[in-house]
Design goal:
single chain, alpha/beta, YaeB-like fold
Length: 137
């Protein structure tokens, strides 16, 4: 027997998240009128949740640099980067260079945003300006 027939036979009404009635409805009946879905898509919501849990955001520029320079952040690398940002924040830093193994990250400590990412090759021969601290983790 199909689920649809079983539901009709027993007067079951399928409940979907967008069909749940507002708190003003105290009649106990389920509203079948659809509410507007949120404007955010799944990847936006997932990105926000990851940022909330990690505490760090990555700028669009940093995301491009991670891809261009083939920097793969592991969970351990991300944890160490977060630790470096926290250490810099505790010392009152505003913009910091965080070294994680051979990769360097320029981070806006105040906004907890990774601004750019560099490999060892990209860091050689460069001068970093507009930073007030360096953390090696």
């Amino acid at each position: 027997m199909k689920i649809g027939k079983l539901q009709v036979g027993h007067n079951y009404v399928p409940i979907r998240p967008y069909e749940i009635s507002s708190p003003e409805n105290t009649s106990g009946k389920i509203s079948t009128e659809k509410t507007k879905p949120t404007e955010k898509n799944f990847s936006d919501i997932l990105g926000e949740k990851i940022s909330d849990n990690v505490g760090l955001k990555f700028s669009a520029h940093a995301m491009r640099r991670l891809g261009d320079r083939q920097i793969n952040l592991t969970a351990l690398d991300l944890s160490r980067l977060t630790k470096g940002v926290k250490l810099a924040e505790e010392k009152g830093a505003k913009s910091s260079l965080i070294m994680v193994d051979k990769n360097a990250y320029i981070v806006s400590v105040k906004n907890k945003t990774v601004v750019t990412a560099l490999t060892e090759e990209a860091t050689l021969g460069n001068v970093f300006t507009n930073i007030d601290s360096v953390a090696i983790v």
